[in-house]
Q: What sequence folds into this?
């Protein structure tokens, strides 16, 4: 729309766009900043959209969550369910359970909102994990992005916690069972376990306090933290600008891609709608967590099979595969569930937090990077990533042992023993293959490594990028020049 | 430039998509008013979003193909030394009087306030006098306490057939609390092979165990009379009901707590004491059950 469009159209555009913007600018003077924002360059690669998918899931979660909160009653006190579920009508159940059933069956659109909320939570964490994998394998947690990596890992932890808390709220048999495991996990915290457990639950299991407490965390504290940290994550991103994949004209000193306006904005809006479409289709067509089938939580009942949501299922898988080991020493006991449910998550997230610094040790690379590395450029990092993903995949498989029993008819004990062996052996196999793959490609990668070293030394020689920006501009493809001219055209009315 | 041609004849695909999106949105409103149900709501609303997504996606493609790739310089980096010194100057140039003492006092006051603000967290604990460690150690039953079903009626050994199981509780116990859940299993006395010191813990082949799995506290809900094994559906631990609740397979590492049984003068089952060990999962201060029968 560079000036030469039809007269009529431009008159309408003037009235609708230019005038109000001009008026606002007279009061706020944002045109300079706005121009920069509209010109922000986003790299054109699908893998840069994973984080955005997570962001859009968060928006959907907040929107549907507000709706649900208006009907949900976070209380474990008894009430009589009166409503259109024939099997439960007239029964004494807890208020949390009753209100979840009624918001599903007796509030129009309630079931849709609830199912969309649940699906969106699953997709939310999935997108975060994939985003994390992209950052990990391309080394984009390295300087200067350590801070954003740390924020990102925190977002993952909070997302998992909040999904678990939300999952537990309806007080149904399946989630109550999960909560009981959660209680036993807390007990296994070294030394302070019992005190911590009573601090969290306020009583023995289940007690009347846990649902209101989880509710407060689920709808106030954790979403507020998530929103604040997402904001911080994006501020850092804007300040540091996107990384991008290597290519002609791309360097640590620039970002190459599409501009925020209009191309990227339209694409991203399209993504928002696509994420929404998937969530609403899932919420409409795919039943999730039919709590009326499980029934109300009673601490002495259980349903079989009892399977957890996927984001927590790796702990479940670990709990299942752990051999029956209980260590007694000095009058103390190391409970069996300690290893897979306290140590494993502790190690996992500890390693994730520390990874930028561990990686620095492993690779000796302390330089600043804005160009994404090829995944195999650092064989050690590649191997670690592949080994960890393999191990966790086996744990996820173990959390679905029931399905394997059903398909194969093999007794669960045999499957468990097999999976134990696989969990320990397969990471070696995939790790070895990863090593060979990375090493095998090293001759080609050698060039990249040399370049990397060069840029490191360049930095050590105190020739930082902001000083040589001018010099670098000349290296950039002619597209850069063309872009400057067009930018001027856009800016001038 | 080809844009002018575009504006004269709008791309049909995108127009159709946006049109369908409006239709689907109207469809959502209609199905909602008619109360047609979840599948309709989700299908129409999701459909509207899907057509919007496709339309916007196609639209953004047209913009992309028309433009070169943009380049933005990245002026990130440590601020040049002199400028950074100016920043530090702004921080320190105007002296704050008595700063050492006052800063440390302010820090102290802030710290005290922060600590004091943590005190209300104490309210999250149960009221004074509850010792979590001791509560977890509870053996649940008292000597002579009656054993009742969910609705409070007493149980006689003959209420169970051989191979039957029944969930029961200590009389007067709040059954919403997990700790009380107890499982009666009746096994032909010929098949029972309890440890020697427990042979008198059963009445007519009825044995009683805590229903809480010793792994992570799930109710041990499945019983196979063939193998006389109790299975926990959570992580598939298996316990031998005929052999004092010994763990046979899976992650559970110690036996189910066992309850010594007797009958009162009317033939109803009562407890001869508490469980032989704490119920549920273990913790670091867990007293080893083997020492205190
Ligand atoms: S809780 Fe029973 S096996 Fe884990």
A:
């Amino acid at each position: 729309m560079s000036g030469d469009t039809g007269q009529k159209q431009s008159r309408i555009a003037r009235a609708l766009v230019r005038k109000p913007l001009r008026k606002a600018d007279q009061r706020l003077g944002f045109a300079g900043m706005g121009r920069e924002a509209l010109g922000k360059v986003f790299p054109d690669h699908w893998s840069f959209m994973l984080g955005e998918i997570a962001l859009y899931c968060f928006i959907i979660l907040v929107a549907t969550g507000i709706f649900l909160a208006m009907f949900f009653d976070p209380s474990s006190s008894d009430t009589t369910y009166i409503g259109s579920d024939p099997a439960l009508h007239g029964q004494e159940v807890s208020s949390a359970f009753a209100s979840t059933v009624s918001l599903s069956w007796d509030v129009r659109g309630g079931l849709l909102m609830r199912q969309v909320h649940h699906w969106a939570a699953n997709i939310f964490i999935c997108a975060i994990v994939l985003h994390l994998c992209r950052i990990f394998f391309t080394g984009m947690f390295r300087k200067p992005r350590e801070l954003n990596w740390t924020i990102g890992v925190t977002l993952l932890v909070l997302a998992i916690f909040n999904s678990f808390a939300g999952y537990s709220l309806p007080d149904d048999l399946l989630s109550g069972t999960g909560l009981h495991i959660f209680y036993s996990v807390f007990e296994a915290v070294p030394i302070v376990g019992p005190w911590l457990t009573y601090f969290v639950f306020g009583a023995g299991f289940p007690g009347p306090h846990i649902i209101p407490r989880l509710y407060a965390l689920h709808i106030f504290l954790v979403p507020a933290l998530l929103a604040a940290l997402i904001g911080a994550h994006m501020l850092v991103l804007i300040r540091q600008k996107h990384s991008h994949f290597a290519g002609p004209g791309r360097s640590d000193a620039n970002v190459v891609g599409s501009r925020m306006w209009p191309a990227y904005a339209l694409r991203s809006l399209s993504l928002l709608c696509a994420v929404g479409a998937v969530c609403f289709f899932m919420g409409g067509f795919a039943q999730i967590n039919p709590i009326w089938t499980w029934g109300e939580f009673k601490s002495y009942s259980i349903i079989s099979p009892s399977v957890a949501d996927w984001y927590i299922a790796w702990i479940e898988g670990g709990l299942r595969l752990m051999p029956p080991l209980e260590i007694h020493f000095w009058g103390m006991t190391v409970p069996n569930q300690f290893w897979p449910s306290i140590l494993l998550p502790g190690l996992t997230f500890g390693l994730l937090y520390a990874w930028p610094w561990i990686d620095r040790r492993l690779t000796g690379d302390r330089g600043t990077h804005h160009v994404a590395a090829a995944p195999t450029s650092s064989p050690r990092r590649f191997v670690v990533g592949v080994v960890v993903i393999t191990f966790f995949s086996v744990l996820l498989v173990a959390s679905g042992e029931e399905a394997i029993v059903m398909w194969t008819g093999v007794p669960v004990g045999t499957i468990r023993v097999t999976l134990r062996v696989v969990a320990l052996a397969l990471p070696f196999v995939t790790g070895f293959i990863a090593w060979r793959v990375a090493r095998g490609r090293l001759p080609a990668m050698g060039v990249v490594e040399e370049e990397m070293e060069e840029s490191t030394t360049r930095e050590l020689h105190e020739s930082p990028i902001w000083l040589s920006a001018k010099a670098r501009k000349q290296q950039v493809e002619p597209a850069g020049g063309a872009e400057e001219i067009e930018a001027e055209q856009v800016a001038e009315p | 430039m080809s844009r002018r041609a575009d504006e004269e004849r709008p791309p049909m695909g995108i127009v159709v998509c946006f049109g369908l999106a409006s239709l689907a949105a109207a469809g959502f409103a209609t199905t909602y008013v008619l109360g047609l149900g979840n599948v309709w709501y989700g299908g129409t609303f999701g459909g509207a979003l899907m057509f919007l997504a496709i339309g916007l996606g196609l639209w953004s493609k047209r913009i992309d193909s028309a433009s070169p790739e943009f380049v933005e310089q990245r002026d990130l980096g440590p601020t040049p030394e002199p400028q950074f010194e100016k920043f530090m100057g702004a921080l320190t140039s105007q002296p704050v009087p008595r700063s050492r003492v006052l800063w440390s006092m302010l820090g102290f006051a802030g710290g005290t306030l922060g600590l004091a603000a943590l005190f209300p967290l104490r309210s999250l604990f149960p009221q004074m006098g509850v010792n979590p460690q001791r509560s977890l150690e509870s053996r649940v039953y008292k000597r002579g306490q009656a054993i009742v079903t969910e609705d409070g009626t007493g149980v006689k050994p003959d209420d169970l057939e051989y191979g039957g199981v029944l969930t029961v509780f200590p009389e007067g116990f709040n059954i919403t609390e997990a700790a009380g859940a107890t499982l009666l299993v009746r096994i032909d006395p010929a098949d029972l092979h309890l440890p020697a010191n427990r042979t008198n813990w059963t009445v007519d082949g009825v044995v009683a165990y805590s229903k809480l799995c010793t792994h992570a506290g799930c109710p041990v809900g499945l019983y196979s009379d063939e193998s006389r094994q109790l299975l926990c559906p959570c992580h598939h631990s298996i316990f031998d009901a005929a052999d004092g609740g010994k763990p046979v397979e899976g992650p559970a590492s110690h036996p189910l707590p066992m309850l010594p049984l007797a009958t009162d003068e009317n033939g109803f089952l009562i407890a001869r004491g508490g469980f032989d060990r704490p119920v549920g999962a273990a913790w670091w201060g867990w007293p080893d059950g083997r020492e205190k029968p």
Observations:
- The longest strand of chain B covers residues 165-170.
- Residues 147-284 of chain B form a domain with the Rieske Iron-sulfur Protein fold (CATH 2.102.10.10).
- The helical segments of chain B are 3-8, 12-34, 38-66, 81-92, 99-118, 132-137.
